[in-house]
Amino acid sequence: MARSIVHMDMDTFFVSCERLINSKLNGLPLIIGGGDRGVVASCSYEARTFGVRSAMPIKMALRLCPQARVMKGDMELYSKLSHDVTQIIEEKAPIVEKASIDEFYLDITGMDRFHGCYQWTNELSQSITKEIGLPLSFALSVNKTVSKIGTGESKPTGKLEIPETMVKSFLNPLSIQKIPMVGDVTFQLLSRIGIRTIQTLSEMPAEVLQQMIGKNGIDIWKKANGIDNNPVEPYTERKSISTEHTFGQDTIDIQKLKSILVGMVEKLAFQLRSEEWLTSTVVIKIRYSNFDTETKQCRIPYTSADHTLTRNVTELFDKLYQRRMRLRLIGIRFSGLVRGTYQINMFEDTEEMLSLYQAMDRMKKRYGFDAVARCAGANLKTKNNNVS
């Protein structure tokens, strides 16, 4: 039996959130980003017509569209509305994967026995727009790849069904850039040998493609042929990453404790970015010398940035550690994870900050985590890292 997989994507999510609370922004070219030295985190379709794109420096965007209104953005608002949308989808869909703050995969295989799958999906999308007020696009097809490409082709506020018999005819004329995993480098490489459409790519021997672009070649070839057996992985807020540090000798040295916390955050934040997670919940754990254990947590806007997480962790630690008794253990846990990248923080950071994170992460991946570190946490040696 063919699967029924839905991909839902909130249209220009950050922009739509801002317009939801301020209707005067409707119809205006709008850029969500981090000031003059920052980059574009999101932009409206009105701005896109001038060539403005995500990750573009704000200065360049304003040269292309000088009449655009630039807003810093409100990640707390975006996180709240994302949770609201998630709750509606989880209440109605049997299997939900939250792929990022604003996109979802739903496996509704077999539901056509009770409803038409397209009709059911359409009714769900209408419920979201009615209850939350945000526009979205969706596509229904046989797997995640085709559905995701379909959503992109249906925007804005589009609704598309691609049955199994129409997958090839749908994919064939599209640019290879529409395939997930095909970035600029791969596109340029394939374009130089005349491969620009999905049909041409699908007819290429898979082994040759693998020799050209490496281990991802087979996966890209399969996607070009509409083949994707990856399951929709149920979304759960319980997924987390954590680390603990047990002292050889109990301590009350606040400066030492905070230095270690900085290093722990840096290590976990790097893990978040490497695995493309964003966290929305920070938990601090302390154990006193008499073995009393206390925890404290807070919800935060989705992030994977060291400096943002460090600020929240240290503030939480200050609130939790009140007894002035020696500590034998401290721990941090990041939970409420969703798929996403550091790009989500673009509206609060400068282009230089983004470049710094990217450069540090490249060095850590190439030479090991300890190759580069912030001074405050450079000497940290932790243990008991885990993912749950």
Automatic annotation (TrEMBL):
Q: Which CDD domains match?
A: PolY_Pol_IV_kappa
Enzyme nomenclature, EC number: 2.7.7.7
The cofactor remark states: Binds 2 magnesium ions per subunit.
Q: Which GO terms describe its biological process?
A: DNA repair; DNA-templated DNA replication; error-prone translesion synthesis; SOS response
Any idea where this protein resides?
A: Cytoplasm
What reaction gets catalysed by this protein?
DNA(n) + a 2'-deoxyribonucleoside 5'-triphosphate = DNA(n+1) + diphosphate
Site (described: Substrate discrimination): 14
* Highest taxon listed in the record's lineage: Bacteria
| Molecular function (Gene Ontology), one example | magnesium ion binding
What the entry lists under InterPro entries is as follows: DNA/RNA_pol_sf, DNA_pol_Y-fam_lit_finger_sf, DNA_pol_Y-fam_little_finger, DNA_polymerase-Y, DNApol_IV, Rev_trsase/Diguanyl_cyclase, UmuC
User: Which key words are in the record?
Assistant: Cytoplasm, DNA damage, DNA repair, DNA replication, DNA-binding, DNA-directed DNA polymerase, Magnesium, Metal-binding, Mutator protein, Nucleotidyltransferase, Transferase
State where Mg(2+) binds. 9, 102
Gene Ontology cellular component terms for the protein in this record: cytosol
What is the predominant subcellular site recorded for this chain?
cytoplasm
Q: Where is the UmuC domain?
A: 5-183
Which cofactors?
A: Mg(2+)
For this chain, the family text in UniProt reads: Belongs to the DNA polymerase type-Y family.
Q: What does this protein do?
A: Poorly processive, error-prone DNA polymerase involved in untargeted mutagenesis. Copies undamaged DNA at stalled replication forks, which arise in vivo from mismatched or misaligned primer ends. These misaligned primers can be extended by PolIV. Exhibits no 3'-5' exonuclease (proofreading) activity. May be involved in translesional synthesis, in conjunction with the beta clamp from PolIII.
Cited NCBIfam families:
PRK02406.1 (NF002677)
Q: List, alphabetically, the PANTHER family matched.
A: DNA POLYMERASE KAPPA (PTHR11076:SF33), DNA REPAIR POLYMERASE UMUC / TRANSFERASE FAMILY MEMBER (PTHR11076)
Which proteins does it associate with, and in what oligomeric form? Monomer.
Q: What's this protein's name? A: DNA polymerase IV
Species source reads: Flavobacterium hiemivividum
What lineage does the source organism belong to? Bacteria, Pseudomonadati, Bacteroidota, Flavobacteriia, Flavobacteriales
Which gene is the coding source of this polypeptide chain? dinB
